[in-house]
Design a protein that fits this description.
Shape: globular
Bound molecules: zinc ion
Strand order of the largest sheet: 6-5-4-3-2-1-14
Oligomer: single chain
Radius of gyration: 18 Å
């Protein structure tokens, strides 16, 4: 059985974001909605023995995410160890990669799956970590390859990012993680329709959302995130996946506010909104 936990559900900046006074950030500071850390997901095969966990993106909030998830903490039988086996990067964005730097006390090189393009963009981080544990770069293939016993994975290339699918080899169920989607390619649509669990880019509700908080800001699509409305909503709605969850949610997104009609639209469609700590079996 594959277990999945959302460590952080917010887009870059988190909720609240340090310099933001939008309605959601104000509500989070006032304790009216739950704060959320920046996007990261843990996935691992459940077994009696020692368990290893893989992360999809490593956010700057990773140290405190580890402290709030017992399963990611070191075992007590040895003074220095970690159950974290490695990290999958969807792209080189700061909110996805900065957490790697915070794992620098690791004893062995950090195993990181990333495209050549992402590896090149993170040359600075590679140099910074070379003085510590170093990085063992790997590339994910478009075909399913075995990762741990009982679990296989593959990458789906998108413009400027990748999505990942993980398959449970005992039951053949598939999970799709696509927190950074600039375009709904045919391959990605297929993956949404053939996965049992879908965690999808819920950064923005609308294309011009950020511009209403910060005049002159780029649109969602210009930032390589298709919005939910007039974007990914229809595709997710039509998917037969057992669970569909929007994650990597920006603090400006109206779906975060209880009672908003945008949130109600998702609820009516049976699509969930991620929150930190949400745990599920595939
Ligand atoms: Zn991000
Ligand atoms: Zn805000």
């Amino acid at each position: 059985m594959i277990r999945i936990q959302i460590l952080g559900s917010a887009a870059g900046g988190g909720l609240p974001q340090w310099n933001c006074a939008c309605v959601n950030c104000v509500a989070a500071r006032a304790g009216k909605i739950d704060p959320q850390t920046q996007s990261s997901i843990a996935i691992g095969v459940e077994s009696e023995k020692f368990q290893s966990w893989w992360l999809i993106n490593a956010s700057p909030d990773l140290p405190r995410q580890i402290e709030s998830a017992t399963k990611l903490q070191p075992r007590r039988n040895n003074p220095r160890n970690t159950p974290i086996a490695g990290v999958f990067l969807t792209n080189a964005d700061t909110d996805h990669a900065l957490g790697l730097l915070l794992l620098r006390q690791q004893e062995k090189p950090l195993v990181v799956y990333a495209t050549d393009e992402t590896q090149t963009a993170l040359a600075w981080l590679d140099r910074a970590l070379a003085r510590f544990c170093g990085i063992e770069w790997r590339t994910a293939s478009p075909e399913f390859k075995s990762l741990d016993s009982g679990m296989a994975f593959r990458a789906i290339e998108l413009p400027g990012s990748v999505a990942f699918q993980f398959r449970d080899d005992t039951c053949s169920r598939i999970a799709l993680f696509a927190p950074s989607v600039g375009s709904l390619t045919e391959q990605l649509r297929d993956a949404v329709h053939t996965s049992d669990l879908v965690m999808f880019d819920g950064t923005f509700w609308s294309d011009g959302e950020l511009g209403r908080v910060r005049p002159g800001a780029r649109s969602a699509r210009e930032m390589n995130h298709i919005p939910i409305n007039d974007g990914s909503f229809d595709v997710l709605q039509q998917s037969r996946a057992r669970r569909k969850i929007y994650t990597h949610i920006n603090n400006t997104n109206p779906i975060l506010m209880p009672g908003s009609h945008e949130r109600a639209q998702l609820e009516q469609a049976g699509i969930e909104i991620a929150r930190d700590g949400l745990e599920t079996l595939l």
